Amino acid sequence: MVNTFEGLIMMIQNTRIFNPEKEFKDKRIAVIGAADSAFEKENGNFIDGFDYVIRVNKAPHSLTEDKYNFIGSRTDILFHSFFELTEGGGGVIDWSLYQQQGIKYVVNPNHDLKGLKAHLNYYKRHLNPNKTYLLPWNFYKEVKKNFGVWVPTVGFSALYSAVSSGCKEVYVTGFTFFKTPYANDYRDDLKDVQKNSDFLKKQGFHNPDLELQEFIKQADKQQRKGTQIIMDNALRSIVKNHKRLNNEQ
Fold this sequence. Notes:
The protein is about 45% helix and about 15% strand. It is of the alpha/beta class. It has a single domain (about 1-240), classed as Alpha-Beta Complex (sialyltransferase cstii, chain A), CATH 3.90.1480. It has an 8-stranded parallel beta sheet with strand order 1-6-5-4-3-2-7-8. Helix 1 packs across helix 7 and helix 9 packs parallel to helix 11. The termini are far apart. It is a single-pass membrane protein. GO terms for molecular function: glycosyltransferase activity.
């Protein structure tokens, strides 16, 4: 009971709102996911040249020097579920590691009852005064408005936040909507695509096909408004194939 009260006070004192529409205005954003497609080309210098580099969940734990040539060395913003599970969660929130990597914002995108509960439980567990962030409630409402019973993954929320922010340019790599394996050292126990698909179905929270559909819809909409969206080869191929199949139906 004491931890609950202290955790709540600490959460109120240290939680801020991260507004992508303000923070990303006129900026160039790189969003790096956990799929193996991020390692198709040595794009490290290209990625590090963006105004903001976003990564997701466990990414800081597997961002080692031997990978810099492919996926860059910077992380400015980490989107994290605040579920510190090793299986199906975001992994341990390690502030010393984040400080070492220069991470400026640790954002919990899930600004709903479940997300706020996860946020509170984090502060109850650690009683740590580090600043954390939530997406604006209205912005997160837009993120999930077409999901029905499904919960957007943290990766999708990171993508949506960048693409829909009205920024100048977004580069996306390492996102294949679970159609290819994870990159090495991220979730090696779930690198098999079928095994990971079965795991997601067993969880019953996420719908990768719906996320792909919503990403394409938002990307097309924002490109018409002037945001340049650059996708890696794997994602570009997945999007092209999805559109082709959709037109055939």
